[in-house]
Here is the input.
Amino acid sequence: MKKEYKHFETAAIHAGYDTKKHLGSLSAPIYQTSTFTFDTAEQGEARFAGTEEGYIYSRLGNPTVQALEEKVAVLEGAEDCAAFASGMGAVSAVLIELTKTHDHILCSLGVYGCTFDLLVLLKEKYAIDYDFSPMETEEQIRNSIRPETTCIFVETPINPTMRVIDLEMVARVAKEHGIPVVVDNTFPSPYLQSPLALGCDIALHSATKYIGGHGDVVAGLVAGKSSFISAIKKNGLKDIGSIIAPFDAWLLLRGLKTLPIRMDRHSENAIKINEQLKKHPRVKNVYFPWNEENAGHEAAIKQMKQPGGVISFELQEGGKQEAQAFLNKLQLIKIAVSLGDVETLISHPASMTHAVIPEKERRAMGVTDQLIRLSVGLESWEDIWADIEQALNG
Ligand SMILES: *Cc1c(COP(=O)(O)O)cnc(C)c1O
Here is the structure.
C-alpha cells in the first residue's frame, strides 16, 4: 500500500480519487462517454503519439475507470491495475499475455470452471499446454515445472473445496525458475490476502464477487507491475476489448468503500455457520479455511487475515438428488451461483459451476455429487442458520 495510507480501511475509501479535481464531487463522477474531444488537431496528434497525457477514447482509458484502477492498485500493493468487463476477461487477458504457442501453464489442481475451460481452449486452438498440481510441497511444484513453463496460476482458497495453497512457498519455487505467479484472489479479496506482499507477481479478481459485493455487476481486475499492466491494457483491453463500462466501475468504487467491514462480517457469520454445520448429524466434511482438518489450514492462518465467507459441505447420505432436495427446501437462502454478495447464496457445484469439467477430473478436485457451496451473506447468522437447519431437518 502507498505510504500515505497506513490502513486498508482508509485507502479503500480515499485512494485513487481526489475530489478537488472533480468540482468537489464527493462521489466519483460517472464519465459516461465513448470519446473525448481534442482542443486542436495537434492535440489529437500528441495524445496518439503519447507525448501528451489525456484521454482519447473510452476503450483506451476513462476517468471513472482510472479512479477504480488506482484504488485497487493501492489496495493490492501493486504499481498498477487494469479493470475488465468480467473476471474471465481478466483471466484471459493475463493468460494470453504470458503465453504463446508451445508454452506451458502450471495451474493449481482445482480452479474456477471457466478458467479450466479456457485452458482447454488455449490448448486445442493454440497448443499452449497445461498441467495441474496440488502444490502441497515445493517438490510437487518443482517436478511439474518444464523448460517451457511461462506461468504459474494459483487459485486459493480453491473453489469450492476451500483448500488453501501456501503462496509464499509457490513464489519461492517460481523465483528459482524466473516464472511469474498469478493468483486468483477472488475468494479472499484484497482485504484478507495480499499475494504481491507474499512474493507473487500478479493478483486478479472476479470483482463480481466480494469487491462489488451487492450482486449487481460483473467485472474483473488485474494488479501487478506497471510494465505488465501496460502490456495487458494494450492487448487485452485495447485490441481484444473486454473493457469495463464507466457505470460498472463506479459500482465497484462504491463497493470497495465498505469492503473491509463487509469482509469482517462475512467472516464472522461464516465462523458461526461453520460451527453449527460441523455439529449437525446430516452433515459431513465441512470445508472452511479455519478448520484444522482443512487442507492448507496452516497456510490459511499464515496468509489470510480471516477465513472469508464461503463454506462447502457434504451431506452424510445420498448424491445429487438429496443435495437438490435440500436446496429446494431453503426459504431465505437463494439458490444461485456467484458469491460474496450481501445475500446468502447456495449452489450445487457438480451440476452448476463445475458441470463442464469431466467427471474424473471433477472428482479429483473433490467436487462430489453431495457437495454444496454456501456463500454466507450479511443477514443475521441466526436467521441463516435457522433456514439451513429447517432444510436439513425437514
Ligand atoms: C466468478 C469467478 C471467476 C470468473 O469471474 P466472472 O466475473 O464471473 O467472469 C474467476 N475466478 C473465480 C475464483 C471466481 O469465483
User: Anything to note?
Assistant: The chain has 15 helices and twelve strands.
